[in-house]
């Protein structure tokens, strides 16, 4: 996908002072990494960090006034915050402009990070960017561009290529159990004659599926094993970034949104990163609205006494939206 920018006009004069060393750049950020935000790009989410230049040299794509910009330099940093500037400018309205991207990062393991995009103007695809004229100077502070609070669910994960099975963390509560499941396409008509199992208990960092009796695709990976690499929670809702342990090129990660209510867990999945509004769409479906596209429903009956039931609604929607 390409991200389209809305022009933001800032009043005031800034002094051009940049953190040229970008001193808070993580020491392990070098070479190829997977970025779940960009899983739909031709690179399938693979980006390249340059430790020496403090740059993203490939994998990120930003379209500014119709001009694709694909290289970004870290120009400001503070604890947990990095501000990137596009290499090159784009012309629009008779002037030239560049864009800034602020990310807030949290280390989850040596080779994995969870991050939010902050500040700037929100775009229709969930991106957040600040656009400045090429004659405008940078502020000396990340707080100028890293404003506001991101939505809990709107995060991405960064995982070093080749480390997909080494970055797992303990699963959140909704997945700590062993369940049987049967598959339905519409919530009422069963498509399998038997049940299969989901194990999130033997290895508490791994969801493992046995599909021998109900061989329908679940969570969209080949070997049916999924590591938890990051999650966020808000009340009874969990947003879980799952990394496929086979790390296939087209399906490296899945976001699972799980809502706990009266010992029932309702969850939706979406390839790539967790996205804004994932919960509201799922609640509409759960409350009887019929317009959410491509729904598959899985029912999990408990085989150990950790919870009473697990109802899994899997959407697999590349572009989640409702019909009129």
Give me some keywords for this one.
324 residues; mainly beta; 9-stranded mixed β-barrel; 8-stranded antiparallel barrel; 1 helix; 22 strands; 3% helix; 42% strand; disordered N terminus; disordered C terminus; DUF7042; signal; DUF7042 domain-containing protein
Overall description:
- This protein has 324 residues and is an all-beta fold.
- It folds into 2 domains: 31-160, no CATH class; 173-314.
- It is 3% helix and 42% strand.
- The protein has 1 helix and 22 strands.
- It has one helix at residues 278-286; strands at residues 31-35, 46-50, 55-58, 62-64, 67-69, 72-78, 81-86, 90-92, 95-109, 112-118, 121-122, 128-133, 155-160, 178-184, 196-199, 206-210, 225-234, 237-244, 253-261, 264-271, 296-302, 309-314.
- The strands form 3 sheets. It has a 9-stranded mixed beta barrel.
- It is elongated, with a radius of gyration of 21 Å.
- Residues 1-19 and 279-324 have low confidence and may be disordered.
Helix/strand class: mainly beta
Distance between the termini: 24 Å
Low-confidence stretches: 1-19, 279-324
Counted beta strands: 22
> Which term fits the overall shape?
elongated
Radius of gyration from the CA trace?
A: 21 Å
Strand content: 35-45%
Overall tally of structural domains: 2
Organism: Mytilus coruscus (Sea mussel)
Signal peptide: 1-20
Protein name: DUF7042 domain-containing protein
Keywords: Signal
Could you provide a short overview of the structure?
It is built from 1 helix and 22 strands. By secondary structure, the chain is an all-beta fold. It folds into 2 domains: 130 residues, no CATH class; 142 residues.
């Amino acid at each position: 996908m390409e991200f389209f920018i809305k022009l933001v006009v800032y009043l005031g004069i800034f002094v051009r002072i940049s953190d040229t060393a970008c001193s808070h750049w993580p020491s392990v950020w070098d070479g190829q990494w997977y970025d779940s935000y960009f899983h739909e790009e031709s690179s399938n989410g693979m980006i390249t960090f340059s430790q020496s230049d403090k740059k993203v040299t490939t994998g990120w794509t930003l379209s500014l006034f119709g001009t694709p910009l694909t290289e970004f330099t870290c120009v400001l940093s503070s604890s947990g915050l990095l501000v990137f500037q596009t290499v090159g400018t784009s012309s629009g309205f008779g002037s030239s402009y560049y864009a800034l991207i602020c990310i807030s990062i949290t280390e989850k393991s040596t080779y994995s990070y969870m991050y939010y995009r902050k500040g700037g103007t929100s775009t229709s695809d969930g991106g957040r960017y600040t656009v400045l004229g090429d004659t405008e100077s940078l502020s000396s502070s990340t707080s100028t561009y890293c404003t506001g609070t991101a939505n809990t669910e709107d995060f991405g994960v960064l995982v070093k290529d080749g480390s997909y099975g080494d970055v797992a963390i303990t699963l959140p509560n909704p997945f700590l159990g062993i369940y049987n499941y049967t598959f339905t396409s519409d919530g009422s008509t069963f498509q399998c004659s038997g049940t299969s199992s989901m194990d999130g208990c033997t290895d508490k960092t791994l969801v493992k599926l046995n599909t021998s009796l109900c061989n329908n695709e679940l969570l969209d990976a080949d070997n049916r094993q999924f590591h938890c690499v990051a999650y966020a929670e808000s009340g009874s809702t969990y947003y879980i970034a799952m990394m496929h342990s086979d790390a296939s090129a087209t399906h490296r990660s899945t976001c699972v949104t799980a809502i706990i209510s009266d010992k029932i867990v309702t969850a939706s999945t979406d390839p790539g990163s967790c996205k804004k509004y994932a919960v509201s769409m799922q609640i509409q479906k759960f409350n009887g609205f019929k317009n959410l596209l491509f729904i598959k429903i899985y029912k999990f009956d408990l085989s150990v006494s950790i919870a009473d039931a697990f109802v899994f609604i899997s959407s697999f929607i590349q572009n989640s939206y409702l019909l009129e």
